[in-house]
Amino acid sequence: MNWLKRLALIPLALLSLAASNPVLVPDVSQRKIDIVYSFTGAELLLFGAILYPGGRVPSEDADIVVVLRGPSQSMIVREKQKLGGLIWVNAESARFRSAPAYYAIASSKPLKQLVDERTAAIYELGINNLQLSPASGETPDVQRRFENGLIDLRLRNALYAEAPGTVEISDGVLYRARLYIPARVPVGSYTAETFLIQKGKVLAAASKDVEIGKSGFERFVAESAVNHPVIYGLAAVALSLMLGWGAAVLFRRI
Fold first, then answer.
1. Do residues 246 and 144 share a domain?
2. Are residues 203 and 234 in the same domain?
3. Residue 22 and residue 236: Cα distance in Å, rounded?
4. Each residue's pLDDT tens digit, 169-223
């Protein structure tokens, strides 16, 4: 029966541990975002509360960092070179095992004022601290060049973003932040993470899941392309021929 007594003491121990550390209670404005033909992007609100032990807010301010991360992808990045001053051709390339398809981070202060480089690297806080897992055997300098190229490409497509100083904290307890989701965002399962930071240390962390998917006709087309590729290809060719024939008839009449 001793094991029963020990088992009964586990919840009490957990409550005691939770009571000594602050706890984050996060939420998001949308758990599911549907992409339809008229989708031009969306704004996701990340908000929540900080529960301190005994309900007492510490005299020293704490800071909040929120991260929205998309599904990881294996991808190849290629460099282009101009051949003969006229034609662009593929040159060197590098493969990455797990680059996030989307990554956006917002913080109550610039990250350099909140954590040191080691802590930022451990929690992957900031675009330059993402663990992209290069799979090629290039030298570190070459790998870094391709990493910078990948990050620059994602930044230009608004798939990577940083927004320092945009997280609002009210009365040291409530927080909220807004992150923009572009129209070309990949579908899949996303994770909204919240970090509570004080004196350079991460005191608490919590997360919520967000699903981004296609609906309506877009979902039908996407599923058809995956589940019935031959029929999808034939239908696309037939549709192109019909549109071409219709355009030819129209111009003849004009």
1. no
2. no
3. 56
4. 999 999 999 999 998 899 999 999 999 999 999 999 999 999 998 764 444 444 4
Cα distance between the two ends of the chain: 93
Task: State mean pLDDT over 108-118.
Answer: 95
Verify that 106 and 190 share a domain, yes or no: yes
Q: Which two tokens stand for residue 235?
A: 């239908």
Strands (DSSP E) found in the chain: 23-28, 32-35, 42-51, 63-69, 72-83, 87-100, 103-107, 160-164, 168-170, 174-181, 188-198, 201-214
Q: Are residues 166 and 193 in the same domain?
A: yes
Same domain, 141 and 253: no
CATH number of 134's domain: 2.60.40.1930
Question: Can you tell me the distance from the alpha carbon of 196 to that of 64, in angstroms, rounded to the nearest whole number?
Answer: 5
**Within 10 Å of residue 202's Cβ, how many Cβ atoms?**
16
